[in-house]
Design goal:
There is one protein chain. The chain is 42% helix and 17% strand. It has helices at 24-35, 51-62, 76-83, 98-103, 105-126, 178-198, 223-233, 252-264, 266-269, 286-297, 321-327, 335-350, 354-361; strands spanning 4-5, 16-19, 40-44, 66-70, 88-91, 132-137, 150-152, 157-159, 202-207, 210-211, 237-240, 246-248, 250-251, 273-276, 283-285, 303-306. The strands form five sheets. Strands 1-4-3-2-5-6-9-14 form an eight-stranded parallel beta sheet, sandwiched between helices.
């Protein structure tokens, strides 16, 4: 697939810039924007698994309505060129794995923290009225709860503290844990502070376990898709920890609806930070997810257990009341239905062909 190379970006109608727009969430966002008639400029390094396939999918669906530029957020000049004249900036480009941040912390910082600052500075200097929505993460809260703070209820952990009955709110203190948590936390705070100090129209979305079609999951990132892929391959799933750890899962269509809602209401929410996840209603443990996959496939995947990894949270569920109230938004797709939809997409995309399954794991 042919893509433009920064900084030679065509000038035309005001487009929404989506950095990381060939990644899982980014390409779904770009698709939704183009579907509702918005010209889109996607900037992506095309280095992650599935990125080139997602780029081809976007171009096949939308042709000239989407332009894709191969560029790096660490390139300040490329970001200045991309941002200039943009109708809005949806910033999702990132290094996304805790494990990679442990192996290459300087690279992790340069992409997540310095790269985000490049984007914000370009907006501040060249296009200060453009809305900026930043993709943050629940990892900015750190481990939040230790093993001594949760109770084993059989198939999942549950917090002992009743304050978390509806999940973790935005008032929870930040506790940046792991280089990934630090780099994303720094970017999160820069995006928040550029609204306070420079008056930019920014909003921060701290996301939790988004899943759905066009996700090429790995052991390090995208665990729900990874579990399904391993089950389809008939390969062993490794669970780090006990499997009782809990996350709230949000189907990508619901996540996209929240992003578009934030963009449409930026004047009402500028300067705010929101947790974006499935909430209590869509909370699930790893073992419970395995049980659901077993029901879908008619057999239980093979499991093995490893030691906890740095920064792993025994329990995290987003309190989504703030974003629900601000955007008149709630998750529509239950985890069970969303898992079934993702399973259909993965099965259709990868099937049972040994060649395609080898490609999925490459």
């Amino acid at each position: 697939m042919n893509v433009a190379v920064a900084p030679n970006i065509r000038r035309g109608a005001a487009r929404v810039l989506v950095t990381g727009g060939c990644g899982f969430i980014g390409c779904n966002l770009a698709d939704a924007l183009a579907t509702r008639g918005q010209p889109v400029l996607v900037v992506d390094l095309l280095s992650r698994k599935g990125a080139e396939e997602n780029a081809s999918w976007l171009k096949a669906r939308h042709r000239d309505r989407i332009e894709i530029v191969n560029a790096d957020v660490r390139d300040a000049n490329a970001m200045r060129d991309a941002v200039s004249g943009a109708a809005a900036v949806l910033h999702l480009a990132a290094q996304v794995a805790v494990t990679t941040s442990l192996e290459r912390p300087l690279e992790d910082f340069s992409i997540n923290a310095a790269g985000t600052l490049n984007v914000l500075e370009a907006v501040r200097q060249l296009n200060s009225t453009a809305p900026v929505i930043f993709a943050s993460t629940n990892k900015v809260y750190g481990k939040l709860l230790g093993s001594e703070d949760v109770e084993n209820t059989g198939t999942r952990y549950q917090p002992s503290d009743g304050r978390y009955v509806l999940g973790v709110s935005e008032q929870a203190p930040l506790d940046l844990y792991s280089p990934y948590g630090c780099s994303k936390g720094a970017a999160d705070q820069y995006a928040h502070d550029y609204a306070r100090v420079f008056g930019l129209r920014t909003a921060v979305l701290r996301m939790s376990c988004i899943y759905g079609p066009r996700q090429f999951g790995t052991e390090d990132q995208g665990w729900i898709a990874h579990f399904l892929l391993q089950a389809i391959r008939g390969e062993t799933i490794t669970i780090y920890g006990t499997g009782l750890q809990v996350r709230d899962a949000l189907f990508v269509d619901d996540a996209v609806a929240a992003w578009l809602g934030a963009l449409d209401r930026i004047d009402q929410i500028a300067g705010r930070v929101f947790n974006l996840g499935g909430g209590i209603e869509n909370s699930v443990s790893l073992i419970e997810t395995i049980d659901m996959i077993s029901e879908l496939h008619g057999e239980r995947p093979a499991l093995q257990f490893g030691t906890w990894r740095p920064g792993d949270q025994p329990w995290y569920v987003s309190d989504v009341r703030a974003i629900s109230g601000a955007l008149d938004w709630t998750p529509k797709i239950s985890f069970r239905n969303g898992l079934r939809a993702l399973d259909r997409w993965i099965t259709t995309r990868f099937g049972v062909s040994p060649v395609l399954l080898q490609e999925a794991s490459a």
